[in-house]
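Blinded run. Sample ID left blank on purpose so nobody reads anything into the name before looking at the predicted structure. Input follows.
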Amino acid sequence: MAAGMRFTVMLQLMQAVYTLALDSNFLPLLQSHSLLVKDTDRCPGCERTQQGEFSNLLETESNIPNKPRLRHVREAEMLFVLELAVSENGNGPFPQRVGLVAQLEPGSTATLVLEGPGMNEDPFSFNSASGEVFVHKRLDREEKDKYRFTMKLLNSSGFTLKEVAVIVNVIDQNDHRPQFLGQPYVARIPEHSEAGTKVLQFSAQDEDDPNTGNGELRYSLLVPSPNDTWPVTFEIDPNTGELNSTTDPARLDRESLPMLEYSVVVKVSDNAGSDAALINTATATIIIEDINDHSPAFLETSVSLAVEEGTYGHILNLTVFDDDAPGSPNWLAVFNITSGDPYSHFNISTDPDTNIGILEVIEALDYETMANYVLIVSVTNEVPLVDRTTVGPNATLTIKLQVKDRNEPPVFSDPVLVMEEPENMPTGTTIIKLNASDPDTHNQGFRYQIGSDPAGWLKVNSNTGEVTTTTKLDRESSYIQGDHNYTATFLAIDNGSPSATSTATLLIYLEDENDNAPMLSPTIGWACHGKINSTVALLTATDIDLPPHAGPFSFSLGPLATSVHSKSGHAFRLNHNKRLQSAWHIAPLNSTHAHLILQDKLPKGQYLLPVQVSDSGRPMQSNQILFNASVCSCRGGQPLDCISASTRFLSFPATFLLLLAILSVLLLL
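Blinded prediction complete.
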């Protein structure tokens, strides 16, 4: 066909027919490449490709200007797609020709340009004069499987007249071995599984092209081989890699197999397993897993024993045997007392290491309540038996247990006795009668005895249990504990051999009485000479009795006051010496305190004042002390020459007068 000759191509897309006017320069390309037509207006997304011989579709047109161009008909978008191919891992020499993408007629002023990533840079180049594409290095399909370029037809002014897409496909070679996924492989198959049971799924991948034989995988067994005589056999699906058991279920018995772990070696081949295939292997550990197909059984079906009444804890071991896997739920025994324990006195636990049943008494056995037991014990496993497995005759045990009588201690009807009594009750008062009984069937005799009596206040009649006082009980005693309680214990001792003893505790709450006079402090004070209305001391009253036998307290001065000097002493009665009587005064502060005040000026010296304090009890209790008050010189509010309150610093006459004053006070009380 002459250069510049026009031809048309008629294609049908959907129900529209397109007529494309093309330059004859592109005819060689149409003979060997694809023509892609898209109508983006009428049918977005629709396209049709025409490839191969176009001779029957060509019509020549004459008198067309010698200017290559593409005319759109019905606004159809037309694009040439030129595809080349190059094999990966090429050995060169480089540069190596890939192929021809276009060729201009001799004398044409047009220019061909091929653009895109990788063109005219690593790894491709384009000869615009010859229209050839070259590769400059070895390619790796797994790194990049195709390269996309754009070929442009430019006029002499550099204006783009036409564009053609050029794709260079990298052809795959079998250069990667398949790799197993998910290693290591470990699988378990229950014993007695049916033939055909899935054991494990092998999975591999190949980086070569999955659309070629290079990525087509096949699985096969290396170990066991067909010649191996394993008691357990397997097969693998060559296409999926699924490993299945082919062993007869009766032979797949964990308890009779010579070994319970098997190492299976699987080969995976690419290239559909051909002789040229690349291979890899993986090993899987297959474990034959136990199921509960054996019933536990007692070594004996009956046992007898005797146990003393009152016994607690472990009394018997129950031994069973089980052929299932030791330590597994299929092997571990579970014991149940199905009958013979109406009062729930017994319990059976399992030692997980030995599978021995431990029979224990959890509620003390009483001979007088029940002397003989017949326990029926069954044994199972933690998980149920599988189908078709029956319970054997030795799965039940009979235990004949005799309770042996022993000397039991007497029993107090009230092991803790609480009572309330007034303190100071008369000696010999009976405060309570103890009551105990003997639970033994032959009803032995017993006696009462004091266990503890810290103050020695009590005694007990050994026959009747009557408890009486041996002295007055004092609430203020150091033996009283806590909330006014006195605690004593008493024993009931039988005449068995050996004897048995029980204990009762007596708590006595003592009611308070006003049997203690209040105490007064301090007993010494001072005032500055020449000052009036001076506080000599803050008087404080205390009482070991409880309210209402304690405060509020009343304070007063007694009828006798004594003045003592270092060289001579003078004694005065307050009611005889008006000045002395009016000089001292007690001013109550609250229910427990009062101020002793010097209201007048007195000569320096010591004054022994009778101070009396009384409680509020009935009958009232009073106490009187001699308060040693000193009148002395002061400086800055501090005493300078106060005479000591101690009589050892007094002269003999002063000491004599002091003792006389004290005696007078005592005679007045």
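Unblinding after everyone has recorded impressions. The radius of gyration is 61 Å.
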